């Protein structure tokens, strides 16, 4: 039995709250169990230097964690004067994942920045951030359509993410913090609504794992993201 | 008539939500109108170097704002690599204000850090942070008592803060963002439950103001903080 | 009796030395007792980005302290790699105070930077900086007139600052370092020659103070700044 | 046909040069085609704070690239004042990969730092770094044995890494820079000599890929690392 | 004729003002023509880590320039967040030069930090800093003797510095800013009272110079420092 | 007898390997005994702001050392977040030295950056960097000629550098690390092929030295650089 007592293939309760941030063009608060991430999408009418004049848009992400989102207070990155390697790794992942389902030529020269800030951390924050950010991004594009800045939504499909891990040699879905700390392996899957793989990051914490186990983790991830895609569609009213 | 349409001496709706952060020893989410600040109090069993061996505790604060708490996205301070002068000024003010109502000798050698993170900004965030942080601090001390780390609560009284300003030459209470941007003067008052002044910061934005006007602002602040003290007492169940 | 032995309403000896810096467009060395601050005004023919094209000028300030201006050597901020929160708070205050008496539209698109560097610190350095910087700024504008860059001086009035404090529950004027360290409350007043208030910053160091005490401090500040205004007028030959 | 003209399952020429750095306790220069990375292992008789007193050792890595290792000169990270997110991500990966095959309790309280510096970059630098660092680490432990600091080598197995990608929808092994820039997907596999998976990082650059394609990439990775394991054994004289 | 109109072997007017800084254990304000540097020596009863427990002292220096010490305002290094290469180069030179005439074993475990802050710059600031810092250091050691911290002065001799340059192919002594900007070569000599060379830094600005010219510059430096040594002795009352 | 056993006037074995870096427009690996520095010259078609529009080029240098180039691992400057004073001093010296033999007007508006990275350090790294960088720079200009970007090579002569020191009061040429650590004085000479002096930096480590000794060091430097000039000519095929 896994620590949370959930079935091996059970997600935690997922709640998506679209429009949770008053000022942002698009936003979504996502809860997966106790984990809670506020995702906002901010639209700006210009692109970074490397894209200027190319007629394409840009989608990027920043990630942060409130100092006391965690069991023990973490140092505030703004006070320390730099973002950790972990933070940078996560925000690069979020940006890549969302760009995989956006037609950037259809955006024109605009940038959308997704801020994913963890209010409460209980495992799986980067996956929750991707799933919630997709909703925020979708809503921001809809906002642009309503303002007649865009004629159609440049999103080409859904993207969502979930973590899986090996517990007592068996694959389990959607690790919480206690499970994540003790798992033999930890894998994050970013998958599309059409069944494609955008990113796999699988890491053995101690003993290396086998290809069969990797496939077992992926099977759970497909089941988990199917539920997340449904929740996303409901959140955007599709 | 002031922009918000409120009476000159009317606070915005104040909601204090104690225990809003799952992991912190004490916490309080405060809303004043649209402004929303999450205040957490984290207890650590040691003091900064300058206090070591003196048998006293320390209370300090950090302040942050989510990038899209504001109408226009602000740069993330962690990404820029340093906290702005404004941020540092505010977190110093919050720390000073709370230390004014704590018997630091009664704490023993422990540090409590108050993290005040603005989730939505609509004016008055530093004042809301002080008012909410007092509740979080009180609860953290109660937590220490329940854990038998402290025998009694070292808080010596209540402290709360409110902003006032001059609108059309008349004093008005509790400025929202639109009012703050257009006010002739802007003053923050940090007052105690016993009627004392902890801090006054009054600034003319354009034309200097008079002593009579300063007194008018202070009268409103007294009225406003009286309501905030009541809300604090209710929040801690006193 | 206060530690310095001065009467409660007595300023320290004030000496303003206009033109103390050879290269600056305007400058003034100010001494208030042992406290000594060198204020220079540097003129530059452009404005920060947020003002470009608006036809207005900008007045800003930077503040520093020589490492051994103090009793005990302080760390050099350039070596540490960042300015302290205190430094930033002070330089923001100096800039705001001077902008309160400048018609920025009359400046045209130019920036004047006031560098206030403390050569010897004995309390009241930020107030001395404001009082001296006003002289430096006035002289820099006169320099611009002499160079036919400006037709008239954009300064609209005088501004000066003084600190007051509570000693043995009584208000006293112009605290030196020893007094400042032991005062029950500490207040900085930035006032104009026309009797207006530009900024009040009053802080209880221990016990909160009363409104009556705040008024007592302000009465002393008015008396003190009256003497400072006279010294400023003498310094600029008015 | 892939750009390099190699067969889909062909590695580039691999050359491992053990002992390439004169001063380091262990070192290895690795070339995979034009890519050239110098890996050094430095032994220090203490551990980071979080491990002190636990009787375990630590293995960590740093990664860098000479500014002109690349076709176009890159900014020097030391001059810019911070390591990029990419650099931090890579050095975290190298450290994790090597720790997966080290019995840290058998090390005692010592730290080994692997510096992997890219002298020439032509794709696959992080994988080359892992493969070469394993040799450097092995030699450093042997050095400790020769100095009677350790009784036996704490390495529990081999680890090596290789990149694979999708070219024209077909999996190809060991991408060079030109191939990497144009591949549809890019995957790094860190595998052990015993056939286990330590880490998989697979990313779709444009179109998402399928599970079958992921398995195709993994099959190539197994073939490629088998050759790398042989080269490692030869390099250490096993 | 050189720009300043001085004879080729003429120093500018030198004024040493010992005790110029109220709080420092030793201090000296030095003026060489318009150049003005405030040198303070601060005593601290401990040494940097690399000397701990060795029974030796340390002498180090920091150098700074007020932003408007120069004709055109320079950026404040504290605001920019780092010291320039030039600043670091100069403060390393000052420290080395003074350590050359100190018996560090005779100091015991104490550190003296020489802060050399340029109030007005008109060429030759690093040389003036060395010459003035020697006086400050001497006085600080005398202070330690008066406090019975030291039994005798650990200074083993005098050290002073002067710049020379080539003007119209002829060596000239003690360049001011205008001369320095236009000289063909620029050399700083740090010499001891006993006639030894501590440091020579000679740089061709355009055309390389000859050994004969280097000797001509050195001859001037000997003459110039002889006068500086006399001024130093007078300043310390020797 | 000096520690290395070499004759007082003997250079270490010098090996220049032009074209050692695959991607750079010009490059040279230089070995002087064990010291090994990789010098690359990177051409960029624009100049820094202070030269824009003046029709001149710029030559600048950056210097680095691999963390384990040394006997004991040094901290990685990119990880620490800033370059040391020593690094900045050296890269400024390299840039100045090369600019002394370049007709910058003949370059047009282009920048060449010389990256000098120490792969193995055994004394004399800054001198080796200058000598090797000259070759890299020459080749980069030849590259520009071959690409018809330049019509002729803007280099006006050769420049090379060597260190000398006092050992047992006698001048010796080309110090290795062990000699450098124990020498009484240490001098770096940057000389031109035409016999001119570009830079002299001579420092007494303990006892000051005499003018006669300085001349003795210089005589060795002339002999040593004559050999280096021959090696440079051979390297560029002149």
Automatic annotation (TrEMBL), chains A, B, C, D, E, F:
Reaction(s) this enzyme catalyzes, per UniProt: tRNA(n+1) + phosphate = tRNA(n) + a ribonucleoside 5'-diphosphate
SUPFAM superfamilies: Ribonuclease PH domain 2-like, Ribosomal protein S5 domain 2-like
Presence of the UniProt keyword rRNA processing in the record: yes
Top-rank taxon: Bacteria
Residue ranges occupied by any Exoribonuclease phosphorolytic domain in the UniProt entry: 11-140, 158-224
Pfam families linked: RNase_PH (PF01138), RNase_PH_C (PF03725)
Top-level class of the enzyme under EC nomenclature: transferase
Keywords annotated in UniProt: Nucleotidyltransferase, RNA-binding, rRNA processing, Transferase, tRNA processing, tRNA-binding
GO BP terms: rRNA 3'-end processing; rRNA catabolic process; tRNA processing
Residues binding phosphate: 86, 124-126
GO molecular function: 3'-5'-RNA exonuclease activity; tRNA binding; tRNA nucleotidyltransferase activity
EC numbers, comma separated: 2.7.7.56
HAMAP family: RNase_PH
Subunit structure: Homohexameric ring arranged as a trimer of dimers.
Family from the record: Belongs to the RNase PH family.
Function: Phosphorolytic 3'-5' exoribonuclease that plays an important role in tRNA 3'-end maturation. Removes nucleotide residues following the 3'-CCA terminus of tRNAs; can also add nucleotides to the ends of RNA molecules by using nucleoside diphosphates as substrates, but this may not be physiologically important. Probably plays a role in initiation of 16S rRNA degradation (leading to ribosome degradation) during starvation.
PANTHER family hit by this protein: EXOSOME COMPLEX COMPONENT, EXOSOME COMPLEX COMPONENT RRP41
Protein known as: Ribonuclease PH
Organism name: Teichococcus wenyumeiae
Lineage, top ranks: Bacteria, Pseudomonadati, Pseudomonadota, Alphaproteobacteria, Acetobacterales
């Amino acid at each position: 039995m896994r620590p949370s007592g959930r079935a091996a293939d059970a997600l935690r309760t997922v709640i998506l709250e679209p429009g949770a941030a008053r000022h942002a063009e698009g936003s979504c608060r996502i809860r997966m169990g106790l984990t809670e991430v506020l995702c906002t999408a901010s639209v700006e009418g210009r692109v970074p230097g490397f894209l200027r004049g190319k007629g394409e848009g840009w989608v990027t992400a920043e990630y942060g964690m409130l100092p006391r989102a965690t069991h023990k207070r973490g140092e505030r990155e703004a006070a320390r004067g730099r973002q950790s390697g972990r933070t940078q790794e996560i925000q690069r992942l979020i940006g890549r994942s969302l760009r995989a389902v956006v037609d950037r030529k259809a955006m024109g020269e605009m940038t959308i920045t997704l801020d994913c800030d963890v209010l409460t951390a209980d495992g799986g924050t980067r996956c929750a951030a991707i799933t919630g950010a997709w909703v925020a991004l979708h809503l921001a594009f809809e906002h642009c359509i309503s303002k007649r800045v865009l004629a159609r939504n440049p999103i080409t499909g859904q993207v969502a993410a979930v973590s899986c891990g090996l517990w007592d040699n068996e694959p389990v879905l959607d690790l919480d913090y206690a499970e994540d700390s003790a798992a033999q392996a930890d894998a994050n899957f970013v998958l599309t609504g059409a069944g494609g793989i955008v990113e796999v990051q699988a890491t053995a914490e101690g003993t290396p794992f086998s290809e069969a186990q990797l496939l077992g983790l992926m099977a759970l991830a497909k089941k988990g993201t199917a539920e997340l895609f449904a929740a996303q569609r409901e959140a955007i009213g599709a």
